[in-house]
Amino acid sequence: MAGEEVILLDLWSSPFAMRVRIALAEKGVEYEEREEILNNKSQVLLKMNPVYKQVPVLIHNGRPICESLIIVEYIDEVWSHKTPLCRLLPTHPYERANARFWANYIDNKIYNIGKLIWGSEGEVQEAAKKELVECFKLLEKELGDKCFFGGLNLNIVDVALIPFYSWFYAMETCGNFSIVDECPHLVAWAKRCMLKESVSKSLPDQFRVYSHLLELRKLHLSQLKA
Questions:
Q1: How many angstroms separate the CA atoms of 131 and 3, rounded?
Q2: pTM over 0.90
Q3: Could you tell me how far CA 98 lies from the centroid of its own chain?
Q4: pLDDT, tens digit (0-9, with 9 covering 90-100), for 33-48
Q5: Could you name the CATH architecture of 6-82?
Q6: From the centroid of its chain, how far is CA 25?
Q7: Geometric angle at alpha carbon 220, from 47 and 55, rounded to 5°
């Protein structure tokens, strides 16, 4: 599409923004990246996402698309011609519905549980660790013996989940447990994803993420004890 303008309102540490970066990279879409500061949000962000006022926001030819999974679907539809044989959403209605189910499951579970692991302690943290492992084991079962949730290629389920790999070190360190011991097949899947340039260049270093989340953890715990 000649002359089109694609802008991503982004945040380096957001797993939701990472999804959009991966999808754009998978489709080979060129775009302008604008990093947001969430305690000093730009007027563009406030205008383009007046409901939630959060990243990511994809602005395509002046029109905003919000919410990461919706954006991923939009990217897959609009730029389908770029990768006609590698769609992020399956073409078969049942497979497409199933992929949406698991992407939605990830959306509703992993962020909130993971936040309790690196952001809490004691019984709350222990319960969150147990729930996370249960969620990951369910996802391992869904993955089965496939390379990716999309088979030989990434699909929306892979794109929804792989950004949380950048949290693994922080969750293991703060929670004092091993994800690879609990869910080796999921970690193997994550490493396969990281071999893809669209993923490896879209995810920040785990140690940088850990440092960032550690600061948030200290702030959160100090507020609870105040």
A1: 47
A2: yes
A3: 18
A4: 999 998 999 999 999 9
A5: 3-Layer(aba) Sandwich (3.40)
A6: 14
A7: 20
